[in-house]
Design brief:
The complex is a heterodimer of chains A (137) and B (357). Chain A has 137 residues and is mainly β. In chain A, 12% of the residues lie in helices and 39% in strands. Chain A is built from three helices and eight strands; from the N terminus they run ααββββββββα. Chain A has a five-stranded antiparallel β-sheet with strand order 6-5-4-7-8. In chain A, strands 2-1-3 form a three-stranded antiparallel β-sheet. Chain A is globular. Chain B is built from twelve helices and 14 strands. Chain B has a nine-stranded mixed β-sheet with strand order 5-4-6-7-1-8-13-12-11, with helices on both faces. In chain B, strands 3-2-14 form a three-stranded mixed β-sheet. In chain B, α2 crosses α3 and α5 runs parallel beside α6. The N and C termini of chain B lie far apart (53 Å). The chains are: A mainly beta (137), B alpha/beta (357). At the A-B interface, α2, β7 and β8 of A face α2 and α3 of B.
Chain lengths: 137, 357
């Protein structure tokens, strides 16, 4: 990923900053010029909670350039609680542990590195949701 | 050792406390017996049980972000009011380019904030905390975030490979009246002592073997702790908890005993046996384990140690705000219990110890 693109997308990548449409009130991710639901123009910033569930998944054994160091790794379609569907890597679990419907949460992780001397791209990934004991208490 | 020439403990003009705290420990564990199996035979004396190892996509920036998110969740503070993000580590992902700007951006603290990385071996995190006390205590800022985090490297086969671990903690400092732990006083004790170092382009650190004990760790930790106790007019018995820097299981227990602390005062914050030495994160993550269990009115003594060498000592008093804060994020224990054991080969892959080209 180019330095300029890494920089331009940092907010959506680091913390799932998207938009919420002022007209139809749908959450939008990634942010874009026109609401994909009602075609109204640019929207207000909105940060997703980072919580969602696995809609579907696969395991990447033959990764694209820049991701070789991480293979094999699971990639999922994650349905965010706010509505948008996001394609992202799953992390902190073995490919065999993934299941459809698994509750997940966003974490910010290394996505790729441009060799030993290039810039590091950080981005959202999802891991199985860690539940606090306090929530149950 | 005692305070000399009328030098007193350090106290800011405006009282300061910890308003939020958060820990992070990665998922993977390498048992010390695995290192022994590969390098020194099964009968070797093991300095710890196991150490925490970062995953392939983790580094000091990503781990700092998660710990800081936990600290902010506990504090409930608007990120834009945080005016400093300071990350102490000896494993910053870049030699030049701050880890702290990545953390500040991810937490939406940018752009009206200080951001800098700190380096002082294992006490870089508490060094940042001392500065944060001053930043808040002087009135320059209402909130300052100090982080100690590392993905520590040990040379394959070296004594430090058993213990060099990944993890750490974030401390959000703010006005005492909002704090869950009041910082009563602090003290820094530093000399030029070459016990452990890494030259600019070296991959692994070097150390002075046995020299790392008496003249380095014990001298600085005990001097700083004794001066803190003297300055506060207290003894070890006045503290409910003590957390000392933990390069292994043995050193902090011996230092604590020499200072007069009993086992039950140090065991809550003694994490090295089960997560290893998290370097700049070590004393701070020990403190998070204590804060998870502390009650209002408890006193806590924290003493870090960084090679090179020096110690920062902090005397804390827990306030009534602790009870609500404890429940707002994952506890240190919950992170530690999320445990996936790996063998030496997987560890070698995760830590980049194999020559790929």
């Amino acid at each position: 990923m180019s330095v300029a693109r890494t920089w331009r997308t940092r907010r959506q990548r680091y913390s799932l900053v998207g938009e919420r449409c002022e007209y139809c009130h749908n959450a939008i991710f990634p942010p874009r010029d026109v609401c994909p639901h009602c075609a109204e123009p640019a929207q207000k910033e909105y940060t997703m909670s980072g919580r969602g569930t696995v809609y579907s998944y696969t395991t990447v054994f033959d990764p694209p350039a820049g991701f070789e160091a991480y293979a094999p790794y699971p990639v999922a379609l994650v349905k965010l609680d706010e509505g948008p569907m996001v394609t992202a890597q799953l992390t902190d679990l073995d490919p065999d542990d993934v299941r459809i419907g698994m509750p997940v949460e966003m974490v910010t992780r290394k996505l790729s590195e441009q060799g030993d001397e290039g810039v590091i791209t950080y981005s959202y990934k999802f891991r199985e949701r860690l539940e606090r004991q306090a929530v149950a208490a | 050792m005692s305070l000399e020439n009328g030098i007193s403990l350090m106290k800011p003009l405006r009282p300061v406390g910890i308003v939020g705290y958060g820990a992070y420990v990665p998922r993977y564990r390498l048992p010390a017996s695995e290192v022994a199996r590969v390098w020194s035979g099964r009968d070797a004396e093991l300095p710890i049980v196991e150490k925490a190892v970062a995953g392939l996509d983790e580094d000091t920036a990503t781990m700092s972000i998660e710990a800081a998110r936990n600290a902010l969740a506990r504090a409930g503070v608007d990120p834009k009011r945080i005016r400093a993000v300071w990350v102490g580590s000896e494993s910053h992902p870049y030699a030049v380019k701050p880890t702290s700007t990545i953390v500040a951006e991810a937490l939406d603290i940018v752009p009206l904030t200080q951001a800098a990385d700190w380096e002082f071996a294992c006490k870089a995190g508490t060094e940042a905390m001392q500065a944060a006390i001053a930043f808040v205590g002087s009135g320059m800022a209402d909130y300052a975030l100090s982080i100690g985090m590392d993905t520590a490297q040990g040379r394959p086969g070296d004594a430090l490979e058993y213990t060099a671990a990944a993890g750490g903690a974030a401390m959000l400092l703010g006005p005492a009246e909002q704090s869950l732990a009041l910082i009563e006083a602090s003290l820094s004790y530093v000399t030029d002592t070459p016990d452990f170092w890494r030259r600019a382009h070296a991959h692994y650190p070097s150390h002075g073997q046995r020299f790392t004990g008496e003249p380095a760790y014990f001298h600085h930790v005990i001097s700083a702790a004794e001066m803190m106790l003297e300055g506060m007019g207290r003894t070890a018995a006045d503290y409910r908890y003590a957390v000392l820097h933990q390069p292994n299981s043995k050193f902090p227990q011996r230092a604590a005993k020499q200072l007069g602390f009993r086992k039950e005062q140090i065991e809550t914050g003694l994490l090295a046996p089960i997560i290893g030495n998290t370097y700049a994160g070590s004393s701070l993550i020990g403190l998070t384990a204590v804060l998870d269990e502390a009650q209002p009115g408890d006193r806590v003594l924290v003493v870090s140690f960084g090679s090179g060498a020096g110690s920062d000592a902090f005397s804390l008093e827990i306030t009534g705000a602790i009870t609500t804060a404890q429940r707002q994020a994952l506890t240190t224990k919950e992170y530690i219990e999320r445990r996936s054991e790996i063998d030496y080969a997987t560890y070698a892959r995760y830590r980049g110890k194999m020559l790929m080209k």
